[in-house]
């Protein structure tokens, strides 16, 4: 069926008719415009101009009808999606997923993946890559061993320092300062000075 002049509403009294002032008005207006202006392109007669205006009016009417049909289809599609619970976000996710799947199955993507795999094999299988990996591995092992040795040396030095006479003398001085600050008694107990060899006896016999 020719879509020209069709009305979307089948019960409309304007079924089969275009918009007001459609083909006839445009044709008449075109003819009057041609007659009034009398400036036709070279080689174009007035009858040919009228026929072209008539065709133009029909095409524009078809465009208008198709727009109305498309609008009605879009509304119907939105209503169906609403009933199915398809939100715009879900639809976007589905479109993105489908698009990514299409990309993965495309020839360009497959060829690119294969080419990258070949390059990776060439790089990892090259002598330069192997030598570089071995050098980095040896350097890492040496660094780990150096840190381990440094930790052992520091621990030994700290142990030697604690056992040195200077450090013990320092500990004795700190103990004496604590004794002088705390006092001879604390919580009912006698506090012995670090430098004293015999404990203090409160009840010494006469």
From TrEMBL:
Keywords: Coiled coil. Transmembrane segments: none annotated. Residues 1-28, 185-206 are annotated as: Disordered. Residues 49-76 form a coiled coil. One of its GO terms (cellular component) is cytoplasm. InterPro entries: TPD52. Residues 190-206 have a biased composition (Polar residues). It comes from the Eukaryota. Belongs to the TPD52 family. This is Tumor protein D54-like. The lineage of its organism: Eukaryota, Metazoa, Chordata, Craniata, Vertebrata. The gene is tpd52l2b.
